[in-house]
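Dear support,

I submitted the protein below through the web form. The confirmation email said the job was done, but the results page showed an empty box. After a refresh the structure appeared. I'm attaching both so you can tell me whether what I see now is the final result or a partial one.
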Amino acid sequence: MKNLTRRSLIATGAVFATGGFLSRAEAATGSIVINIFSAGFIIGVSGGGGTLTLEGNQYPLSVGGVSAGATIGVSGTDLVGEAYNLQNVRDIEGTYSAVSAGLSIAGGAEDAQLSNGRGVLLRLRGRQVGFMFSIDLSGLQISVT
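What the results page shows now:
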């Protein structure tokens, strides 16, 4: 009887594990391009746009955000990367937040890994141009337009 119970548990675990892998496989990965302009003195604001390419279709994005903390400067950032775990295009929408510290003078490399409440993961890389010093809490809002 112990062997039967042990085998049942192993078989049940295998079914759940396989089901977990199958549901993750259904999630799509898209490519994303984002252009952000930021300015701030204590309180920072950012805005911009971008494009999500998912399954051969392009979707325009609106990007905005606010930061509070030690922020001063003006910069523009162009980011490219991938968006993971998309069940549909609207999953990209939401607030992406991070605690960050950085300094950019006339150009600097940017790498970011962000996620939203829907489980979408953005892996972005790019270049920041301008002058920006920040030690802040920031939130980035992305929506499909």
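Response: this is the final, complete result; the empty box was a page-load delay. The longest helix spans residues 2-26.
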